[in-house]
């Protein structure tokens, strides 16, 4: 952390902490997540375990979207398609080789990260809304292709379709065949994914990304390899989306093409922004918003369409009222509380500081340099 | 005085006829004893596709109407049915979550009246593993007809598509077919392949056109089909996609030169009216069940149950017929059990022993077939043609000649 | 060859709708910097209102006017009430906000009218002319004429009227326009209303040419965006031509058996190829 504090850099990146302190999040992420997951797995019934497993998977994908948007100010609207790519490869290799699930998952992640880099190619020439729309075109194309080919289900040939016989289900990892165990497994993968991002943010890639975000000319003059670090970010975001697809695939046992429409990618981005793209737990909130909130509404007998109305209205409300997302508000509240406890005499500046600087970061990155 | 007597007699006659009428209209279900069931409820589940590109929920709503009727008429030997319906929103992930809720949390003894486009693929294995038998209303994709414990009441798009092609071949001598279906794996190609295989074995030929159901350009599809100069065009499409194709065909004047037929998805009371006079006598559809307005006893009873226990907004369509049948079948199977011992295992055994479930809504008695690894009992079908804004039944029940039914036919031979 | 011409003719109808949708999107984008993902949903809402009025026995013309009015009013209301609250956010976030609006509309349509397949009949369906072995009904011809007429009209409005001048200045620099005393918020809402008129007309045409179904109509906005991209989000004539070209290409792919089942991907592939080959300077027109 020797680089000067840039105007576009989120506040917590520039804060110097002594010794290993700056890696503290790397410990808090797994501890908090796993503790929460164990509590949930003790209390929840099968419906909620299954719902929250999906939420954990989608949180991984949201973390990738947040990485691109929060760190680099880039918008990719094809991340849900990358979930599909990861899921496809996980299923295909899982059925083909019958090797441990972890290897399938990894191959799904790697495949999605390669495709993610390809999707990111337009970002070398484009940014802002143009990039977003072009990636949306990619998602539209993927929707047509995956609907026509479907996901592998244990058949032979390249596409692996078992059209004439009974469909096979992808076995879950040996470590976690039961529902509760698999939920913990999914949260474990989520924790690893979030730690991977956190590690990047706190080392050289994170600094390079912050520079690119502050302005490509600045970054170039500081010797940042634009091509490498942009591609790296897209690869990492794709990798996480791919893992999400693999975790989803083994959760149900297979996937269905109809669930991967272009609109899902839009939805994923929207809820990542609502969840908060500037804090690690924003992705977790986004995952919950994507899966747990709709389940909560339908579980309480709310008509599917009315749930859609409520969801849409809540999305608008959150976008309008929380520029840094729900996570940003929670972080602001947390800092205000710690400030309050630390010194009773000066509570208010701490309250304003974090959200304001995050908001500044959000805006400077969004404006044309 | 005479006047009075006459008046009294008239009243008596009137009362009598009203009594007869209400007796004919009164729905019959379960024990039919008019006593509300008060025992420990029996949980039964259903998963339907409601929110999404089409609404299949009528199946479970009709089953619910029947179970409500059963609960008001003695229940299952005193125990009411607690019928829990889930909407999978056309999303297999949600379907799996609902299966976890119903099978693991609510401990349902069986699934009855399911009608979903995505559920079979997602949940068939779960049901088999957990020993739950699903007596579905309407199954669409192939997965619904290749599962161990999933048994739909309908015949599925493959048989339905082939049945209408066979009928057109028989009545008009058509030899050259084009089959149009959605490019959804395990739905479209599967349905049209049936026609191709049958055509090859019977001196005819058939080509398949797969279209993206989200496609917005029906005219090009129709032109493509016409360019193959077929004798007949067979549609195996959802109703919403099928109508624009027929309209485009009419625009191109094809309804005058080519025969048109459709799988049962085209059978809906509003279709002949929506198509108009230009299609009179020119559009044949297959029917998986008795015509909706048929005045046969069980079909009348279905309508009576719907009128008494389902709201006016619940469609009286083929999905509802299927849901009614599945609920009636499950009720009759459970009534044979000791009410104290109605559990998942005993219900699964009772359902798997159903060998001859009769209803005039079906062409032939329905059976489960515990010895079979898959279930497709409804395979004898009728056809119907557009006639003056209505449907007119044009064929007797006929067994479908799908080579894929070899295992089913072999089993049926052992039943007789 | 003649069969290919027949596909060209059949693609003109849907191409016209892509063109109209694309132009409606670009008009709004130029004025406000927002891509309206709710465009299709607004059109669907209008079409459902029209269908409902016709079912109730009202005159067709009244129903169509109501459809256009409802779509325009809905769009204007969003532009006046909600869009300004997001005005200082990232353009992508402002566009994604319309997704929330689209979900509200789509949910309302599904809840109120249900997802039962329907079709909106227009009196122009029954008359048709034969062209190259394909018949083109009046609705398609009207769609095509309407697309050309509306592009001409909106171009005239932008070029010749005072409001057009304001809108163009807004497109160039929003902050500067505000300093010059242009009432930015009102003007933007006006652009939302205009875009809503386009949405309403597209909704009516699509409900007739395709089908009246909320989801289908809502997400037809995605291929329309392809037309807008080809018009570089700026040029109205280029967007209109691109829309028609996309429709025709999609239809012509039917003649290629290998590609026919995937031809709905045509808009996306065309847009991606165009972006890959466009000059970089044309692609940096990101506003604000």
Describe it for me?
- The complex is a heterotrimer of chains A (369), B (416) and C (288).
- Chain A is mostly helical and 369 residues long.
- Chain A contains 15 helices and no strands.
- Chain A has a single domain, classed as Orthogonal Bundle (ABC transporter involved in vitamin B12 uptake, BtuC), CATH 1.10.3470.
- The N terminus and C terminus of chain A are likely disordered.
- Chain B is an alpha/beta fold.
- Chain B folds into two domains: 199 residues, 3-Layer(aba) Sandwich (Rossmann fold); 165 residues, Response regulator (Rossmann fold), CATH 3.40.50.2300.
- Chain B is 41% helix and 16% strand.
- In chain B, helix 3 runs parallel beside helix 4, helix 5 runs parallel beside helix 6 and helix 7 packs across helix 8.
- Chain B is globular and about 65 Å long.
- With 288 residues, chain C is mainly alpha-helical.
- Chain C has one domain: ABC transporter involved in vitamin B12 uptake, BtuC.
- In chain C, 71% of the residues lie in helices and 3% in strands.
- The interface between A and C is large, with 50 and 53 residues.
Question: Which features does this protein show?
Answer:
heterotrimer; B: 416 residues; alpha/beta; Rossmann fold; 2 domains; 8-stranded mixed beta sheet; 5-stranded parallel beta sheet; 13 helices; 15 strands; disordered N terminus; C: 288 residues; mainly alpha; ABC transporter involved in vitamin B12 uptake, BtuC; two-stranded antiparallel sheet; 12 helices; 2 strands; 71% helix; globular
| General form of chain A | globular
Return the string of H and E elements of chain C: HHHHEEHHHHHHHH
Give a short account of the largest sheet of chain C. 2 strands, antiparallel
Q: Could you give the distance between the termini of chain A? A: 24 Å
Write the CATH fold name of chain A. Answer: ABC transporter involved in vitamin B12 uptake, BtuC
Please write the CATH class name of chain C.
Mainly Alpha
Distance between the termini of chain C: 48 Å
Broad structural category of chain C: mainly alpha
* Secondary structure: number of strands of chain A: 0
Q: Radius of gyration of chain C, Cα only, in angstroms?
A: 19 Å
What would you say the CATH architecture of chain A is?
Answer: Orthogonal Bundle
Strand order of the largest sheet of chain C: 1-2
Per CATH, the architecture of chain C is Orthogonal Bundle
Binned, the helix content of chain C reads over 70%
Beta-strand content of chain A: under 5%
Low-confidence stretches of chain C: none
